[in-house]
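Retro notes, item 3 of 5
We never archived the inputs for the 2'-deoxycytidine-5'-monophosphate complex last cycle. Fixing that now. Sequence and ligand:
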Amino acid sequence: MRGIIIAMDGYAGTGKSSTAKEVAKALKYRYIDSGAMYRCVTRHFIDHQVDLENEGQVEVALNQLVIKFNFNEALNQSEILLNDRVMDKEIRLPEINEAVSKISANPIVRKKLVVMQQQLGTQKDIVMDGRDICTVVFPEAELKIFMSANLDIRSQRRFDETKAKNIKVDFEEIKQNLADRDHLDTTRQDSPLMKAKGAIEIDTSYLTFQEQVDKIMEYANQLIYAS
Ligand code: DC
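Structure as it came back at the time:
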C-alpha cells in the first residue's frame, strides 16, 4: 500500500469538490479545496480594497494573509481559515463569485498559492481539486482527473447548493456567472483550465454522485494497492 496524490481539475459545478471530499474521506486522506483558497484571497482583497493593478499592494496583501485548513471533528468536515477565522458563507457570496476569476488570474496571486499548495502535498495522502492542480501544481500526481459536465446541469447544481446555504440566488444569474467564469478560466494567460497530459476525463452530466465517487475510488485503489 502506498500514499498517492489525487489531483482533480474541472469546471465549476461538475461536482468536483463534493466528489473530492468524499474520496478523501473514504481514503482517510486530507482534502484541499484550492478554489476556496482563491476565494479567501478574494474575500481579503475586497475587504481591504486591494487594487489589483498595484503590484506592491497585491504583494503586501498576500503577505498579510494566512490560510489554513483544519479538520473539524464535531462537524466531521474540513474547514478553511483565513487569518484564523473560519470561512464558509463569506467566500460563497455572489460578490466573491463575480470577482474571483479576475483575482485568481493575477500571476502574483497564483505564484503564492501554487507554492502553498505544493507544500501541502509533500506528505502525499491528499486529494486536491481546482483548475490547475493536474497541469501546474502536481503534474506528477499519481492520479489526475479532469471533470466536465454540461452547463445547464452544472447551473442547476450550483443553484441548489447556494440555496441550501440560505443565500438568495437567481438561476439565470448563476448560469451566466458560470459561463463567464468558464470563459475567463479557460482563456486566461497564466495556467488556464485545461485537461492535463495523462488526466482521465469524467463527464458527470448523467452520473449520480455515488457513481462519480466510485469511478475515482476504483482508479485510486488500483494505484494504492498496486504491487
Ligand atoms: O472551484 P471554485 O468555483 O470555488 O473556484 C473559484 C475560482 O478560483 C474559479 O473561478 C477559478 C479559480 N481557481 C483557480 O484559478 N485555480 C484553482 N486551482 C482553483 C480555483
